[in-house]
Amino acid sequence: MKQWVTVLGATGSIGQNTLDVIARHHDRYQVFALTAHSRVDELAQDCIEHQPLYAVVADASSAEKLQQLLLDKANKTEVLWGAEQLEWVASHDQVDQVMAAIVGAAGLLPTLAAARAGKRILLANKEALVMSGQLFMDAVRDNGAQLLPIDSEHNAIFQSLVGCENHQGVQKILLTASGGPFRAATLQELKSVTPAQAVKHPNWSMGQKISVDSATLMNKGLELIEACWLFGVTPKDIEVVVHPESVVHSMVQYVDGSVINQMGNPDMRTPIAYGMAWPERIDAGVPALDFSSIQQLNFEAPRHDVFPALKLAARAFEAGGTAPAIFNAANEVAVSAFLREQISFLSISQLVERCLDAIEIEPAKNLEVILSADQKARKWAQEMIA
Ligand code: NAD
Ligand code: MG
C-alpha cells in the first residue's frame, strides 16, 4: 500500500528535497497535500508534477492565482487557504506521513495537529519542538505518533542509537556543527558582516533563516534544545563539536569507549529518505562518499566567547517553561531584522539575551501560554529594534 504524504512547506529547501525523494519512489509514496506560503508559481509546478489531492496557500488571493494556474493545466488539485487548512491537511485520516518543513513558529500548529492525529512526523521544523517541548512530546506519546528527526544531526544521532533505543550505556551525545561561514572570523570582523555573507553557508544550501542561524550558531542552539527533547537528555549530556567539513553528521559516545557516527555527503535527501522509509532504507539520489577525495576531517571546540548562542540556548532549556519559546521568538524577529539590514549581525544574539532577561518565564502548561510568550517576545524584540 502506498503511503500518503503531506508536505508542509513544500516550496522550501527541505520541501523540494522531499519531493525529489518522493519522485524517485512513486511506487511507495503518493502526495496528499502540498503547502506553501507565497511562492504560488513554484507550488503550481509541484502540483502539476505530483498531483496532490490538496494544495494550501496563505490567503485567498494566492489561492485564486494558484487555482487559475492549475486550471490552465487541467490539474484537479483542490486549492485551500489559511492556517486552519494547514492543520486539516496535516491531520487528515487519509494521511500517513507529514513532512514538517515550514520555517519557524508558523509551523507549530500544523505539526502539533499531526502529532495529535498520531501521524508519522518527519520533523525538520525544529522551532516547533523548541517552542513547545514537553507539550509536543506528550502529544506524540499520547496519540501514538512517530517522531522521526530530519535535521541531519538528529537523524545521525537517531541512526547512531540503533540497537540502543533505551539509551543503556550511552555516555554523551556529540552534536556536530559546521561552524558556519564565520567559523574563524574575529569579533571585529563579525561587526560588519552583511546578510549576503551570512546566508552563504560553506557546505549546505538552505533557506535564508536557517542559514543566518548557522552563521550565529543559533541553529546549533536550537538543535541543542531539539536534541534534549528528542533524546530525553539535558544540555550537560551533549557536547557540541565543530566539524567544518560536515561529513560526520553527529555521534553517540558509549561508556565502553565506542563512538558511533553517521557519515555522508551533506545532502538533506539522506535524512529525509531515512525518515520516510524507516526502518527500511531507500535510494535518496545521494552519491556515496568518496573517501579517496576526502583529504582530512577536522574537529575543534566551539568559540563560546564569539558565539554566545549555545550558552543562551542551554540557559533557555534549563530555565524551562516558556523560556525556549521566548528564545526562539526573539531570534526569529532578530534574524528578519538582520536580513532587512535593520540590525547588525552581533545584535542578533544580544537581542535574544536581553529578551530572555526581560520577559517573564512561565510554566508552559498549555499551548495558549506558549503562544502568548511567543507573542510577548516578538513584540518586545520589535520594539527594541524600532
Ligand atoms: P525555506 O525558507 O527554504 O522554506 C520554508 C517553507 O515554509 C516554504 O515552503 C514557505 O512557503 C513556508 N512558510 C514560510 N512561512 C510560512 C508561514 N507563515 N506559513 C506557512 N508556511 C510558511 O526553509 P528550509 O530551509 O526548507 O527550512 C525549513 C525548516 O527545516 C526550518 O525549520 C529549518 O530550520 C529546518 N531545517 C532545514 C534544513 C535545510 O537544509 N534547509 C536542515 C535542517 C532543518
Ligand atoms: Mg541541522
Automatic annotation (TrEMBL):
Residues 147-231 form the 1-deoxy-D-xylulose 5-phosphate reductoisomerase C-terminal domain. Its cofactor is Mg(2+); Mn(2+). GO terms for molecular function: 1-deoxy-D-xylulose-5-phosphate reductoisomerase activity; isomerase activity; manganese ion binding; NADPH binding. It comes from the Bacteria. Belongs to the DXR family. PANTHER family: 1-DEOXY-D-XYLULOSE 5-PHOSPHATE REDUCTOISOMERASE, 1-DEOXY-D-XYLULOSE 5-PHOSPHATE REDUCTOISOMERASE, CHLOROPLASTIC. This is 1-deoxy-D-xylulose 5-phosphate reductoisomerase. It comes from Bermanella marisrubri. The lineage of its organism: Bacteria, Pseudomonadati, Pseudomonadota, Gammaproteobacteria, Oceanospirillales.
